[in-house]
Design a protein that fits this description.
The structure holds two protein chains of two kinds. Chain A contains ten helices and ten strands. By secondary structure, chain A is of the alpha/beta class. Chain A has a domain of 174 residues: P-loop containing nucleotide triphosphate hydrolases (Rossmann fold), CATH 3.40.50. Chain A has a six-stranded mixed sheet, with helices on both faces. A four-stranded antiparallel sheet of chain A has the order 2-1-4-5, with helices on one face. By secondary structure, chain B is mainly α. Chain B has a two-stranded antiparallel sheet with strand order 1-2. The longest helix of chain B is centred in the first third of the chain and has 43 residues. The chains are: A alpha/beta, B mainly alpha. The interface between A and B is medium-sized, with 27 and 21 residues.
């Protein structure tokens, strides 16, 4: 098996086994083997078009929204194949939450932004308590505690993104996927979100896609480097080059391409 | 500092005639815009002036009187106001749920895009049917059909309201569809990413986010229903009586105007103008309410 590097030290929550992603007949991401370690932060890095976001969206079946999407191979979560026919994607997304590239709070109050997910997931407990707890986990409580009834859209970009993180942790998922969560944020907000990621690691398994290599080296325990190649037919195809502990990837990678990418020589 | 000739300056000065043209354009646009406002004011003032004799004679009683008798010079528009509001209300009651349903169906991915486009076009085509055609269809098809299984004897409130519903349906469906498709896809993804089903995402996120647009569409539809003349006049029966039965003939302000203006003279003309002013006021209030509602919803 090529590129099969597992997170050896800790238990794997998600296993990616020979995954091919197609859009129609176009093979967009090819032959991925990759295991995600529990309660660790795994970063996906690589140039644009390398399929890192596409792969990320496979983990909570968000690509199902794209009609031409097709997946070959298996993604197992606690040894259950997420793409088995009997699996309800809605249930998958309740266990594996997502934070998007651009902050996308609902046009509702801050309180309702968090309560919505909890409510549709059948949360029976004290909603006020959950809202406070989630906002505290997202390091946003002190900034918004006096304006919970105001619109989530009135917050700054960085606050909105932390609201989106709070909204995701409120459904008490097991894994949190983050798709370039800081790319639309200023440096201070970015720092806050990164601190947050460090704290969230205690309770959650995190996979983060990032374009920012410093960010990957700051937050991630493991890093996967993806690259893009052009096939004979002229299609651009993403593939996994190397996956290892972050310090290994950044200081002593096995592959030449990884070395060049992390040192900023291409990409 | 030495002065440079125009041709040697790096940044060329703006030609004088261009500045002149700019001003001409600005003034033309302003005149056009002003004309619209003036025409509106002019119509209102003229109608109001013509209504003055009736306003002086009948005062506010005009609104609550039920008799319309040019021979005795007794005028009251209560039945027409009642008919206008009730027919529009019934029409919206039918058209709003169907219209939003159609909008949802045509904004989700239930149909292949090519077929969906045809359906969208067909719905919009409903709005292109002239209202006199709707009226004719109502008389020769809808009323005989309704007679089969309702106590309806001929023209009446029900067929008029049904035709109104059909006429405003494309307005509601088209505007609601625009509003729903304009909701950023990222909101749907956010909802679905939190474990929402398709319906939870639609009902709790997409529709509320589109609500200001949908309400705008409904209000536009209401405005159209309140003022619709030809089809309603052909179908409502033009009876100046207030009847609680939807199977009985009724009247609307616009039908009253259409039926009476040809033979009207003297005080009758003034009374009709007064009625027109009331219709204008009703639609104005509806539009203002719509603006307020939409503004309030957009704040959230």
């Amino acid at each position: 098996m090529i590129n099969h590097q597992s997170a050896k030290q800790t238990e794997a929550v998600i296993k990616t086994e020979n995954v091919n992603v197609y859009y129609g007949n176009f093979l967009a991401v090819a032959g991925i083997y990759l295991d995600i370690a529990k309660n660790q932060v795994t970063a996906f890095i690589g140039p644009s078009g390398c399929g890192k976001s596409t792969l990320l969206r496979c983990y909570n079946r968000l690509n199902d929204l794209i009609p031409s999407f097709k997946l070959q191979g298996a993604i197992t979560y606690h040894n259950q194949n997420l793409y088995a026919p009997e699996i309800d994607p809605v249930q998958v997304r309740r266990r594996i939450g997502m934070v998007f590239q651009r902050p996308n709070p609902f046009p509702k109050s801050i309180y309702e932004n968090i309560a919505f997910g909890a409510r549709i997931n059948g949360y029976q407990g004290d909603m006020d308590e959950l809202v406070e707890k989630s906002l505290r986990q997202a390091a946003l409580w002190d900034e918004v505690k006096d304006k919970l009834r105001q619109s989530g859209l009135a917050l700054s970009g960085g606050q909105q993104q932390r609201l989106c993180i709070a909204r995701t942790v409120a459904i008490q998922p097991d894994v949190v996927l983050m798709d370039e969560p800081c790319s639309a944020l200023d440096p201070i907000s970015t720092l806050k979100v990164e601190e947050l990621i460090h704290q969230l690691k205690e309770n959650y398994t995190i996979i983060i896609v990032t374009h920012n290599m410093q960010q990957a080296s700051r937050v991630a325990d493991y890093t996967a480097f993806f690259n893009v190649r052009t096939t004979e037919k002229g299609d651009r195809q993403g593939y996994l080059v190397e996956y290892d502990r972050t310090e290994k990837i950044f200081q002593n990678p096995k592959e030449e391409a990884t070395q060049q990418y992390v040192s900023g020589r291409f990409g | 500092m030495t002065s440079l000739s125009d041709s040697s300056k790096i940044i060329k000065p703006r030609p004088v005639n261009e500045r002149y043209l700019d001003n001409v354009f600005k003034w033309t646009a302003q005149i056009f815009a002003l004309t619209i406002a003036l025409v509106l004011i002019w119509i209102t003032v003229q109608v109001a002036i013509a209504a003055v004799p009736a306003i002086k004679q009948f005062g506010l009683n005009f609104l609550f009187q039920s008799s319309w008798n040019p021979v005795k010079s007794e005028y009251g528009v209560w039945p027409a106001i009642y008919g206008t509001i009730v027919s529009s209300f019934i029409a919206l009651l039918i058209a709003v749920p169907i219209g939003i349903g159609v909008a949802l169906f045509l904004s989700e991915d239930y149909l292949p895009p090519s077929i969906q486009r045809i359906f969208v076009f067909l719905v919009e085509l409903l709005a292109a049917i002239p209202s006199v055609v709707y009226g004719l269809w109502g008389i020769f098809v809808l009323i005989p059909f309704l007679k089969n299984f309702t106590p309806l004897k001929g023209p009446g409130m029900l067929p008029a309201a049904l035709i109104l519903a059909l006429m405003v349906l494309p307005v509601i469906a088209a505007i609601s569809r625009d509003a729903i498709t304009n909701v950023p896809e990222s909101l749907r993804q956010a909802a679905v990413g939190l474990g929402a089903t398709r319906w939870e995402a639609i009902l709790q996120i997409m529709l509320p986010a589109a609500s200001s647009g949908i309400i705008g569409g409904v209000m536009l539809a209401l405005g159209r229903a309140l003022g619709e003349t030809m089809a309603v006049t052909m179908l409502i029966g033009n009876s100046n009586k207030v009847s609680l039965s939807i199977f009985a003939p009724s009247n609307t302000i616009s039908s009253l105007l259409t039926n009476q203006f040809a033979e009207a003279s003297g005080m009758q003309v003034s009374a009709l103008m007064y009625a027109a002013l009331i219709l204008f006021a009703i639609t104005l209030v509806v539009n203002i309410l719509a603006q307020v509602l939409v503004k309030r919803l957009q704040k959230i």
